[in-house]
Amino acid sequence: MLKVFPSGFLLLSILLVGSIMILFVSSSTINAFSQATESSSRSNTFINSNPTGSGLLNDTNMKLLDSLGLATVYQPLEREIAKIMDIAYQSMNLTNSFGSFPLSNLTADMQQKYRGIPSDQDIDKRNEAKSLLETNTYLSFIGMTFPNGDTYFSEPYFPSQTNSSAYNYGYRDHIIGALESKHPYLSNVITAASTGKPLVVLASPIFSGETGNNTIIGLLALGFNLEQFDNLIKSESLDLNNTRLVLVDNNGTEISDSESNTSKLETFKGLQSIEKAKSGQVGSMSELINGRNMSVSYAPIDIAQSKWILLSITPN
């Protein structure tokens, strides 16, 4: 049987439901606003940073980074990383000369004597590598390897290829990761075989180029110039009083530091702020660093399969 309610009861019900809906919307709006503006450990805002350079951070994320004092350094970092990622994807998409590989035969004698092909072979690839290095100062070297990890060539020829203590890098995580994932793969901080200095390498697979064939015929290796990243961090920290800017890899190992020499490879592993950033969060919290109570702001930067974490550290 259909029940008919008095008109007064119906009107009262509509008013009650409408009031509840207004309260719910208002509460949600306030919560969303506070999450985007408060610099606290409760912050759980996600940044969709674009590693290929095809987009920029949206206004909300930029305002959050600005409120944390990270925007001015985050933007140039992301921009330079995006340029390097573009080179990696161009080789995968066969839009540069690195897509055709190899052109010269590599003998055992070459491996022992030159750590790859001699400097006068495959000049087109070497010249393209030199040109890219000149226009991308955040790269320290560009090289190509075979799928087994044997070096084909590396530029600059000196010292990257001639001073190398090895010719096979098949054991390196970035080589293994690129082969298994068939995508660009970033190493954590390692020690360069040619200079003994800290280094980060992005390895990108090179495919055969045949339609429908995803056979990997080689890898492009892009070495990051950590001194340039260090210079960027230091220059951006000049206007920040009593604040230390630090850039670390996915393991918490120092890449760049506004206050120290990065050759010491200080580690920040174990900080809760780093773990939060690794999960994609951006925010600020108090942490004990070397026995001192510090305010730490943090933000992740996506690179290939990994993340770098930007930290701003200020004494409480």
Number of β-strand runs: 12
Structural class: alpha+beta
- CATH fold-level name of the largest domain: Beta-Lactamase
CA(first)-CA(last) distance: 70 Å
Strand order within the widest beta sheet:
1-10-11-12-8-9
State the order of secondary-structure elements, H for helix, E for strand.
HEHHHHEEHHEEEEHEEHEEE
- In CATH, the homologous superfamily of the largest domain goes by the name PAS domain
Our estimate of the beta-strand percent is 15-25%
> Main beta sheet: strand number and arrangement?
6 strands, antiparallel
Helicity level, as a percent range?
25-40%
**Domains, number:** 2
Shape-level CATH architecture of the largest domain: 2-Layer Sandwich
Radius of gyration: 25 Å
CATH class of the largest domain: Alpha Beta
Uncertain residue ranges: 1-56
- Output the number of helix runs: 9
Query: What is the general shape?
Result: elongated
The average pLDDT value, as a whole number, equals 81
Structural account:
It is a single chain. By secondary structure, this protein is of the alpha+beta class. It folds into two domains: 50-79 and 228-315, PAS domain (Beta-Lactamase, 2-Layer Sandwich); 94-224, Beta-Lactamase. It is 36% helix and 24% strand. It has helices at residues 7-37, 59-67, 71-92, 108-114, 123-135, 157-161, 173-181, 226-236, 272-278; strands at residues 45-46, 139-145, 151-155, 185-186, 190-191, 198-207, 216-224, 244-248, 254-257, 281-289, 292-303, 306-315. The strands form two sheets. The protein has a six-stranded antiparallel beta sheet. Strands 2, 3, 4, 5, 6 and 7 form a six-stranded antiparallel beta sheet that branches. β11 and β12 form a beta hairpin. α3 (71-92) packs antiparallel against α8 (226-236). The chain is elongated, with a radius of gyration of 25 Å. Residues 1-56 have low confidence and may be disordered.
